[in-house]
Amino acid sequence: TFAFQYIQIVVWKSMDRLGKMRGPPRDAIVAGHSPEKKRGSAFGILRAMDTAGAVIGTMITFLLFAYVGYLGIIMIAVVPSIGSIIVVSVLIKEKRGKDVFKGVTLRGLNTNLKIFLLASTLFALATFSYSLLILYSESFGYSVPQQTLLYLLFTIIYAGSAYPFGWLSDKTGRKPILVAAFLLLLLTSAWAYLFTMDMITIIPLFVFFGLMNGALDPVQTSFVSDLVESERRASIIGAFQMVVGVAAFPAGLVLGYLWDTISPQAAFLYSIIITLVSLILLLAIRTDTKSEEK
């Protein structure tokens, strides 16, 4: 609302990202109130509901954008934000845990968690935003309203698959679903690199990418929660998300540089290579001897 220049948009968007600080304490609350055998389902429901909000928001944007424009849409978005603050402040009750923060250190952590942290960091270096796919679709003739529908497809797939993947991880283990998520990013990048040629062939990208996020987000957090004791869960989840989040910054720079200076295909090829390396690390995690236990 108050941004009139590019640099102001960057500043306000950066402040918006500070809202991500809600993630670790929220995830710790969910993990603490769900047994390990149902933790995947719990995080699946969380991600599904979170993304369902994005689906509804996208529908509202599609229907009202022509009437209220960017400013009106942003002002409408303020309303549910205020509502969520009220719900969290009034309805959520918790007991303060012991002060056990030991700093950001790998010492004393489960070996599988260390490997998974490295694999996830590399995976973050290979991952791009759905915004990149939206930008890619523009080169094949998609207009802004049509791009909104592509984003809607992505969010519907994401929301619809999060719970099934989370539930399945409770039954089969976290690793197979995480392997599927890594393979889905590989498929997304490979499809963009090899098979996109018109408006029709762009559509599967948003399906694959939605499935990747649906498989990754609930199960990744569940796996980290499984591998750390409850007293340190919020701290470790926060540290994990911090490392993965920081890795997204150079990933964006590299992908953007390759995109602008060489071609979009070069960016997708980079993603393919780094994803393959991260997948090899993920496969090195042992889960045959109760490795998902703390």
Structural category? mainly alpha
- H/E element sequence: HHHHHHHHHH
Question: Biggest sheet, open or closed, and with what strands and sense?
Answer: none
Question: What's the shape?
Answer: globular
Q: Indicate the proportion of strand residues.
A: under 5%
Q: How many individual β-strands?
A: 0
**Considering DSSP H and I runs of 4 or more, what fraction of the residues is helical?**
over 70%
Please state the CA-atom Rg, rounded to the nearest Å: 20 Å
Could you name the ranges where pLDDT drops below 50 across 5 or more consecutive residues?
A: 289-294
| Distance, first to last CA | 47 Å
User: With helices defined by DSSP (H or I, 4 residues minimum), what is the helix count?
Assistant: 10
Compute the average pLDDT. 84
Structure description:
With about 290 residues, the protein is an all-alpha fold. About 75% of the residues lie in helices and about 0% in strands. It is built from 10 helices and no strands. It has helices spanning about 5-15, 25-30, 40-90, 110-125, 130-140, 145-170, 175-195, 200-225, 235-260, 265-285. The longest helix has about 55 residues, at about 40-90. Residues about 290-294 have low confidence and may be disordered.
Q: Concise description?
A:
With 294 residues, the chain is mainly α. It is 77% helix and 0% strand.
Compile the SSE list and pairings.
Blueprint (H helix, E strand, L loop, with lengths): L5 H12 L5 H10 L6 H53 L19 H16 L3 H9 L5 H29 L1 H21 L4 H28 L6 H29 L2 H20 L11
